[in-house]
Amino acid sequence: MIYIGYMIFPMAAGLPWWRTDGVILTAILHAGPVEFLYYWLHRALHHHYLYSRYHSHHHSSIVTEPITSVTHPFAEMFAYFTLFAIPMLTPLFFYKSSVAAIYGYIFYIDFMNNMGHCNFEFFPKKLLSFFPLFKYLSYTPSFHSLHHTKFRANYSLFMPIYDYIYGTVDKTTDATYESCLKRPKDSPDVVHLTHLTSFDSVYQLRLGFSSFASNPHKSKWYLHLMWPFTMLSMIMTWIFGRAIVLESNTFNDLKLQCWLIPRFRTQV
Q: Domain count of the chain?
């Protein structure tokens, strides 16, 4: 695919790793044409003629999950990829593109698309309190879940600003967001405490690499190449010194958890 792209777009060869003006142009093109055109395309797809023939397939998942984000008919996928090509190809034609702009935009699309369909609200309330404009610039899982349950609201792609402009935000959006953040506290019956040993042991957790987790207390030569990340993890554990739930199991009514104390052997 890369070679085909070079043949069709010869200006894509030899792109710089970073160009600030190209990254800014990509962001503007997404926030402007892409979000605006997608909003109206999405509203059109909810017209009974197009909905019954195309978009209803996507809405068959009322309770969404990440895979729901890519369950679209071919015609819809073609339209979406055409829109997403605008921020990637326009800077390319003006010789302002970069590797970071193209791959960063692809990552942004995939991340936001899967995040919006994960059906699990995790954006902290403090974020919206500290940065009130955030709710106009980024949707949340609860925002998009209302679209799959109410159907006639919250049409925006990733930026709800157009829903607010055209008055299609569901009235229960804020209340749903706050209610999704209220979760009952999990009180375990049995807690096992553990802590890190060597600096490389952070990669041997289940949150790290499963291949390392199956062989604890063994170091590999290539882990030394990751020392910048290893040192960063040590600094983070020193700053945020709170235990985290490493593993949780339930046997009938008995709840067992393994808590990880974020301290290395040299710090204990």
A: 2
